[in-house]
Amino acid sequence: MIKHELKYKLIETGVQLLKERAENAKKAMEELQQSANDYGLPKDRYDSFRAQVLRKRDLFAEQFQKALEEMDIMQKIDAKKISEKVEFGSIIITNKQKLFVSISLGKIELEKEQFYAISTQVPIYKSIQNKKTGESFEFNGINFEILDIF
């Protein structure tokens, strides 16, 4: 597979995962709002059920908003750009694993291969930032060799 096609597929898979995450959060948020509406006003000043439901709704609203923001970030990655060094949007092939520097999504399986979508905020990224093909780095006592970057 051509490198930019692989990157494009990883971006699309990540966006799809985020869409699912956003839809699930939105559905939960709407169900909780409906539950609070069905319950009505608090029955007395010690009745905290409605307040708890609304707090949960607000947490799902935050998750929904975060998923939308991450989707926007993911869609800004240029699939055609081939990186010379490890940076945001890079795919890094090491002798141990394959990393995709985007947002933290965890493991993504694509065409029987596993990629780990990581953000620029995770510790392993700090270890590999600005490294180039052929260079090595150590993370958690394990030595990695960078075989390819694109």
Instruction: Provide the β-strand percentage band.
Output: 15-25%
Give the mean pLDDT.
94
Number of domains: 2
| Structural class estimated from helices and strands | alpha+beta
Question: Terminal Cα separation, in Å?
Answer: 13 Å
Question: What is the element string, with H for helices and E for strands?
Answer: HHEEEEHEE
Helix content: 40-55%
Going across the major beta sheet, what is the strand order? 3-4-2-1-6-5
Radius of gyration (CA) equals 20 Å
Q: Give the uncertain stretches in residue-range form.
A: none
Most strands sheet: 6 strands, mixed
Q: Give the beta-strand count.
A: 6
Helices and strands, with pairings:
Elements: H1 3-39, H2 49-75, E1 91-94, E2 98-101, E3 106-110, E4 113-118, H3 123-128, E5 136-139, E6 142-149
Parallel strand pairs: 2-4
Antiparallel strand pairs: 1-2, 1-6, 3-4, 5-6
Describe the structure.
There is one protein chain. The protein has 150 residues and is an alpha+beta fold. It folds into 2 domains: 3-75; 91-149, no CATH class. It is 47% helix and 21% strand. The protein is built from 3 helices and 6 strands, in the order ααββββαββ. It has helices spanning 3-39, 49-75, 123-128; strands spanning 91-94, 98-101, 106-110, 113-118, 136-139, 142-149. It has a 6-stranded mixed beta sheet. α1 (3-39) packs antiparallel against α2. The longest helix has 37 residues, at 3-39.
